[in-house]
Write a structure and sequence with these properties.
The chain has 139 residues and is an alpha+beta fold. It folds into two domains: 1-38, no CATH class; 67-128, Dna Ligase, domain 1. It is built from four helices and six strands; from the N terminus they run βαβααβαβββ. One of its GO terms (molecular function) is tubulin-glutamic acid ligase activity. One of its GO terms (biological process) is microtubule cytoskeleton organization.
């Protein structure tokens, strides 16, 4: 059940967990929460990658600002096909960055040149590595 009240006896609600959209709809105009609905999903690498890839499929011209991204193990075959197609076409080999889905603060991140170098049975997000990414104000 929700801890939100329908009057303005409390102006701020502090959540220790993610807040649902239905809970936010219960808020009155004068009430605020410390969470943004959906932020938990967007803060997880695998969920963010899935959402960005979905938006790229729907709006390819608007969502071309991030490198090719695969969620493993679900998209491992797709990653292998893409890598094989590049090799067959004689394209310059790419470097990929592998970010474990459960990791944080850079723990467990490593670089590979192809799917054969992946750690087996890894739940991870794989992206084309950008050696010189476009940064805002150098950060």
């Amino acid at each position: 059940t929700s801890t939100l009240v329908e009057d303005c006896t409390a102006n701020v609600f502090w959540y220790e967990r993610a807040i649902s959209t239905s809970e936010v709809k219960l808020l009155n105009e004068c009430q605020r929460v410390n969470m943004i609905p959906g932020m938990h999903e967007m803060a997880r690498k695998s969920s963010l990658a899935r959402a960005l890839n979905r938006m790229r499929r729907l709006y390819p011209n608007d969502f071309d600002f991030f490198p090719a991204t695969w969620n493993l193990p679900a998209q491992l075959d797709e990653f292998k096909r893409e890598h094989a197609a590049r090799a067959k076409a004689g394209s310059m080999p790419k470097t990929y960055i592998v970010k474990p889905s459960a990791g944080c603060q850079g723990a467990g991140i490593y670089l590979v040149n192809g799917p054969e170098e992946l750690h087996p049975h890894t739940a991870a997000v794989v992206q084309e590595y950008l050696a010189a990414p476009a940064l805002l104000d150098g950060y």
